[in-house]
Amino acid sequence: MPVELKKDGDFAVLTLNRPEALNALSFSILGDIGRALDEVAAMKDIRALLVTGAGDKAFCAGADIKELRNRPLIDQKRGAELGQSVFAKLGTLPVASVALVNGYAFGGGSELALACTFRLASPNAIFGLPEIKLGLIPGYGGTQRLPRLVGEGRALEIIMTGRNVKADEAERIGLVNAVVEGDLMQAGRDFAGKFTRYSLPVLEFARRAVQRAGDVTLEEGLRIEADLSTLAYRTADAEEGMAAFEEKRKAEFRDG
What are the BP-aspect GO terms (predicted)? Predict the structure, then answer.
């Protein structure tokens, strides 16, 4: 199976499993990813999603270029919309996602990582949006998500030159949360464990508030924050958290 989904304790793990093709994307595989994410959204007993690529050479080397050629204009647009809609599902999941970038993350591979909530990278990870070298621009969300992470000027420079960004630079500019040595999957579990012990509904409120920050004015964003923080107060977990603080004990959140 080119896309595998399994449960690993508190986590769902989505693996692109085409190591012989550097886990490259096809339209069929995009559809498989979308269906896998729908399954994740329906899971009731997970606390985060980990996304990775099989093998040690590539997270995902991007689109299958052969599929992109000699297609009617409407099919080109539908292809971009498919990639965008599939990757957008990561932002609407009830749990956060962590991309574990092992090796190449080019084109659609970088865009898949960008769509995740967080990104961890192995020291050999290399990011790139090289579409400009083909006479194209990123089409699966790269032009929108990259500047939100690294700023407009740096995003334009990366996109307009098509250059590679190695792991150490990616960490320095905020493209990844951390570069980790050793077992990347275990590092992903450990990283996610830092927040998954808290209330899942309240974690989702926090994600929603921050996600909207780049889409609305400050005034509107503050209204959204007020609404979501008020909803957080209405949860049983908020009552437990505040009571635990006053009683000087560890809170026992129950996701309610």
Answer: fatty acid beta-oxidation
